[in-house]
Amino acid sequence: MADESTQSIVVDAPADAIMAxxxxxEAYPEWAGAVKQSEVLSRDAQGRGxxxxxTLDAGVFKDVxxxxxxxxxxxxxxxxxxxxxxxxxxxKGRYALREEGGRTTVTYTLSVQLMVPMIxxxxxxxxxxxxxxxxxxxxxxxxxx
Length: 145
Hints:
- The structure is a single chain.
- The protein is α+β, with helices and mostly antiparallel strands.
- Helices cover 26% and strands 49% of the residues.
- Strands 1-7-6-5-4-3-2 form a 7-stranded antiparallel β-sheet.
- The longest helix has 25 residues, at 120-144.
- It starts with a strand and ends with a helix.
């Protein structure tokens, strides 16, 4: 991924519990503040979402977009790319998990390009805010379960 941002957080839970929350797209509106609606359009052989549409309202940024997911066989990573969006030209992302002693480091990598041109510095700052919020909300959700 060119021009990407990366951030990590440590979650007090095993990797499979974290991946279960990540894969439960229908529940995102319950815990991911900006996600107002999510719909799984297709699933893989294991029942995990392959194509998912999200309705996002993050204040100044609103979008309806569809992502295609690829799940790692070892259950420790998931990658996604933008299929279509109203405000985004492209999106590539990845959650990678590394478990150690019942705690798991979750690394989130993200690259987003909007339809409207944006200076790289501002885009990376926006990506970092998105990732920081997403990781904190994921940690809160997993540790509450």
